[in-house]
Amino acid sequence: MNILHVCANPKPTEESVSKQLAAAFFGKIIELMPNVELVNVDLYDEKPPYYTYDLYKRAWYPILKENHKPTKAEEASINYASQQADKFNSADVLVLTMPMWNFTVPAIMKAWMDQVLCPGLTFNISPEEGIKPLHKVRSIVLLVASGGVYKEEDERDALTRQVRAAFGFIGISDIEIVWADGQNPLFNMDHEQRKEIALEAAAEIAEDIAELEAVAAE
Ligand SMILES: Cc1cc2nc3c(=O)[nH]c(=O)nc-3n(C[C@H](O)[C@H](O)[C@H](O)COP(=O)(O)O)c2cc1C
Hints:
It contains seven helices and seven strands; from the N terminus they run E-H-E-H-H-H-E-H-E-E-E-H-E-H. By secondary structure, it is α/β, with parallel strands linked by helices. The protein has a single domain (8-217), classed as Flavodoxin domain (Rossmann fold). Helix 1 runs parallel beside helix 7 (191-217). The longest helix is centred in the C-terminal third of the chain and has 27 residues, at 191-217. The chain binds flavin mononucleotide (FMN). Residues 9, 11, 16-19, 99-103, 145-148, 183 line the site of flavin mononucleotide (FMN). The site of flavin mononucleotide has 16 residues, from helix 1.
């Protein structure tokens, strides 16, 4: 099994609750599936560029216009997206680790999504066939931390909606969410307990994935 881990958090693990969730998840996965193939993308090391007009033309003109010959600049503009799409398309499971910032995903994660969710790379699109995935990602594990407390379907939450909608668009609807909310110690006396519960949930999801994989291998 191949797992792609994309992390959008500039903090070291000891200061980051979402990275601690990732440590709990991957610690369990490696314990139970020592042969798992892990690819890590730390977005603060592999920074995605912002979307450009050249990339728009390179990605969309082959679909929208006949006989467009891409310029050298247009060709070069798709390099980051292509490299990330290769990693994406090799994965069976995608793990996304991030904090909630301003009620949604960090901008660097959104920039990565704008690159990788690219026609011709991770999906095809046509009037005849609609959206056709080019990847084989079957599920996403979303590991997130927030300062505030959020009830289910909280209307302030644009983060889980963003992830569900964007990846649902390319055919990935199986999304497991581990959300350590209430991590602001100024307002939540129980932030440590909340973190502990989320750490356990992250390890349990890893166990479920390993169990499914073992059953599939039988
Ligand atoms: C720039 C910034 C924006 C934030 N915006 C929100 C927010 O909209 N909602 C919220 O609940 N917490 C917000 N927080 C708090 C973080 O989500 C919280 O500290 C969380 O623990 C961060 O995850 P981490 O510990 O993995 O870094 C924000 C923090 C920062 C630095």
